[in-house]
Amino acid sequence: MLGIVGESGSGKSQTVFSALDLLPADGRAVADGIWIGGQPVGDLSRAGRHALLGTQIGYVPQEPMSNLDPCYTVGHQLMEPLRAVHKLTRTQARERAREVLLLVGITGPDRVLACHPHQISGGMAQRVLIAGAVAGNTSLLVADKPTTALDVTVQAEVLELLRELQREYCMALVIVTHNFGVVADICDRGAVMKDGRVIETGTVEQIFAHPGDPYTPELIKASQDDTESRAELDAAWNKAGRTVRA
Ligand SMILES: Nc1ncnc2c1ncn2[C@@H]1O[C@H](COP(=O)(O)OP(=O)(O)O)[C@@H](O)[C@H]1O
Ligand SMILES: [Mg+2]
Fold first, then answer.
1. How far is the CA of 10 from the centre of ligand 2 (A)?
2. Which protein residues are within 6 Å of ligand 1, measured from CB?
3. What is the SS3 assignment for the chain?
4. Atom 4, ligand 1: which residue's CA is nearest?
5. pLDDT at 246
6. Which of 3, 58, 118, 173 could bridge to 187 as Cys pair (CB 3.0-4.6 Å)?
7. What's the CA-to-centroid distance between 219 and ligand 2, angstroms?
């Protein structure tokens, strides 16, 4: 479980999009090597990489409500990808949708399948999106700030759910967050981003106890203070002889 942390605009989502091959047309991801489930994917064609989405890689977006289509029922939105990507019949797709809703802790799956997004809560919507992301038995789950839009208590539940799913299915999980508490709580490794670059990466212990970059403890402090302290952060960044993005 890898936690990607960094202030707003530091490039966390772009990093995730590059892993999902969802960069804009003129964007390009560069890496020494990319493997999914032990298979090198760097040499695959665009179509080959897209075929990994929903089969090997699942994605949980940031805003549950704006990532569900208000025009369609939850059931339709869960079943459609299963039919298109996994070639399930309508009956099989419905059964799988019920199964994954139960898996993410939704006890009345039939009722929820029949609901339109405005008829369910934000926490429920996020569970639906997580269900959709794991429905294809993916080996990698990428979650971009999966709890931002939720109440604090629901946030804890959703994190716990991600942790359980990760353990149970031995999935790799990449979670983007601005909360170091989340990293400390559920991650094995962390990556700290600033100005579009990873400035530090290591085990969670290393990052907290022996940070390699002076910016990291400042970011941890700012995250704990829960204040808008970008000025202090920028000062720390400057003190280390770096320039701050305009
Ligand atoms: N590696 C990069 N190369 C080019 N542009 C980048 C890179 N990382 C970030 N950006 C630019 O910074 C903006 C903010 O990045 P984003 O990933 O949305 O930040 P975050 O998710 O951390 O808030 C992007 O829209 C993009 O224009
Ligand atoms: Mg982002």
1. 8
2. 6, 8-14, 196
3. CEEEECCCCCCHHHHHHHHCCCCCCCCCCCCCCCEECCEECCCCCHHHHHCCECCCEEEECCCCHHHCCCCCCHHHHHHHHHHHHHCCCHHHHHHHHHHHHHHCCCCCHHHHHHCCHHHCCHHHHHHHHHHHHHCCCCCEEEEECCCCCCCHHHHHHHHHHHHHHHHHHCCEEEEECCCHHHHHHHCCEEEEEECCEEEEEEEHHHHHHCCCCCHHHHHHHHHHHCCCCHHHHHHHHHHCCCCCCC
4. 196
5. 40
6. 3
7. 16
| 118-150 pLDDT, tens digit each | 999 998 999 999 999 999 989 999 999 988 878
**In angstroms, what is the span from residue 98 Cα to ligand 1's centroid?**
37
Nearest CA to ligand 1 atom 20: 9
Q: Which atom of ligand 1 is nearest to the CA of 14?
A: 17
**pLDDT (0 to 100) of residue 223:** 81
Ligand with smallest separation from the Cα of 12: 1
